[in-house]
Specification:
single chain; 368 residues; alpha/beta; Rossmann fold; six-stranded mixed sheet; two-stranded antiparallel sheet; 11 helices
Length: 368
């Protein structure tokens, strides 16, 4: 019975994974999912899913396979015709809120987008050890006793011996019923990584554009955290001037004014120089803008900062250009002109929420 339950549960999880992958693009483009984020889980709305099984029909139903019938008769669905009948008084299909861990969701996203595993650089020679529970055994200290497994074993024993009374369901475990968690110590290489998010908050970046940045940043962060143990995130906003802010301010701020992208790149370069030695850190700057910049001179300053300050230190520099009715969209063309052959620079045009998944694949598809 236990093996059958485990098999059914495994089949159910596979069905759920299939449903999530089938609708992944829709889930990723919805900002509401981020709002439902717990500490380590995300709540996903799924239609109710039932495992397929055989069902006995009505004995008096008659028809092929039961009662009268002739060879060659077709198997039908009964006499009722679709679309006919009176209004009912029963509820229809409901959505189920399914809790999925961020680690599992990152794995599903990685499979669907075919994202390669990242090979980190840094202090991998520094190894910590982590105790991980890996199974259940018959002996162990009482502090690690597995209550549910012990209870199930005692229930099985009493049912098999005929001593279980449903009217007085008292379960008393004996020594042979007790089950204990087992563990092993696993090496945990320490790889340091930092993500530096930069966002244009000038007057041409509206709420819709910032929402796209917020959603895409969340999923980028989810994937990179699945690849590294211990990751830092830093946030920079800029219009004509740049400043470091906390996460909440980064996503909620409402600014206006002109745009000088070089101000953000100068702050990013200083941040790397002061806090993140390239030999020890995996560094990922992500910049999001609508492509407007103050002048050709400032664009030239950005190119020089990238060439001499930022690119020599980072794993990857990613620029996402969010389509805006007010932005010129020129900056992505300037980056392509100067860095088209540089594997460290990845650019992506994000035309709307439906393009978020494609943009993530463009950014992370090289596994750097």
């Amino acid at each position: 019975m236990s093996q059958r339950i485990d098999l059914d549960h495994g089949r159910f999880r596979q069905i759920i994974r299939g449903k999530i992958k089938q609708n992944l693009r829709k889930y990723i483009s919805q900002g509401e999912m981020i709002a439902r984020k717990g500490k380590d889980t995300v709540s996903i709305p799924l239609p109710q899913v039932d495992l397929p099984r055989f069902k006995w029909g009505d004995k008096q139903g008659g028809g092929v396979g039961q009662g009268d019938g002739q060879p060659g008769d077709a198997l039908g669905q009964g006499q009722d015709k679709p679309g006919q009948g009176e209004a009912g008084d029963r509820p229809g299909e409901h959505m189920v809120e399914l809790e999925v861990s961020l680690a599992e969701l990152a794995e599903i996203m990685g499979e669907e987008l075919e994202l390669p595993r990242i090979q980190p650089k840094g202090t991998e020679k520094i190894v910590a050890w982590k105790d991980r529970f890996t199974g259940v055994r018959n002996t162990g200290p009482e502090s690690l006793r597995h209550f549910r497994r012990t209870f199930k074993q005692a229930l099985r024993r009493q049912i098999s011996l005929g001593t279980y009374d449903p009217r007085n369901p008292v379960i008393i475990p004996i020594r042979d019923d007790k089950r204990y968690r087992s563990w092993r110590s696993e090496p945990l290489p320490q790889s340091n990584a930092v993500i530096i998010y930069m966002m244009d908050v000038s007057g041409s970046m509206g709420d819709e554009q910032k929402e796209i940045v917020r959603i895409e940043s969340f999923w980028i962060d989810t994937w990179l955290r699945s690849q590294y143990h211990g990751i830092e995130s830093r946030y920079i906003i800029h219009d004509a001037m740049a400043k470091e802010v906390d996460r909440d301010t980064f996503f909620r701020t409402r600014e206006s004014g002109g745009t000088m992208i070089s101000s953000a790149y100068k702050l990013c370069a200083k941040m790397i120089e002061d806090d993140y030695p390239p030999a020890l850190w995996n560094i990922y700057p992500f910049h999001f803008s609508d492509g407007d910049n103050w002048s050709i001179d400032d664009t030239h300053a950005c190119v020089e900062l990238l060439k001499h300050k930022i690119l020599p230190a980072v794993n990857l520099f990613a620029y996402g250009q969010v389509e805006s009715p007010y932005g010129s969209g020129q900056f992505i063309k300037d980056l392509s002109e100067h860095f088209d052959d540089d594997q460290r620079v990845v650019t992506s045009e994000i035309k709307g929420k439906d393009a978020i998944m494609d943009s993530i694949k463009e950014f992370l598809g090289k596994g750097r």
